[in-house]
Amino acid sequence: MPTEKTYTITALTAQVRNADRVNVFIDGTYDFSLDVAQVVDCGVKVGRMLTEAELAELRREGEFGKLYARALEYTLMRPHSAREIRDYLQRKTLPRKYKQRKTGTLVEKPGASPAVAQRVFARLEQRGHIDDEAFAQWWVENRHQS
What we know:
This protein is of the alpha+beta class. The protein has one domain (6-145): Orthogonal Bundle (Arc Repressor Mutant, subunit A). The protein has five helices and six strands. The strands form two sheets. The protein has a four-stranded antiparallel sheet. It has a two-stranded antiparallel sheet with strand order 5-6. Helix 2 crosses helix 3.
C-alpha cells in the first residue's frame, strides 16, 4: 500500500510589505502566507510534516486571512451596506491579470474561492462590521451635507 506524500515546512519569514503576515516555505520553496495569529493558532513551525489534506487546509486558512484583512480594511474606511460588502467580496473571487515585475509577462492569478468569501462575510457580520442601519444613517447624513 503506497504511503501518503508528506510535505515539510522548511522556513517561515516575515513579509517585507506586511509585517503581520508570514511567508511559509514548503520543501524549500515559497508556498503561501498566513497572518501571525494563524501561524500560532494552526501550530505552524519549521520542521512540521504535513499531509496533502493538512497543506490544503493551511492554504485555505492563508487565503481566508488575506481576504479577511482586506475586507476588514474596506469596511473600516466608511460604513458599507451588506450588498456593497458582498459585491466587494464577489469581485475578489474573480481571476485577475497582472504583469510580473521581473519579466513583464502577463499572468492570470485565480481569485479567492467563493466558500472563503462567504466565510469572510459571515465573520464580518458576526463581529458587527456589517450594519445596514448604520450605513443608511451615514448615507442620509452625507446627502444633507451636499
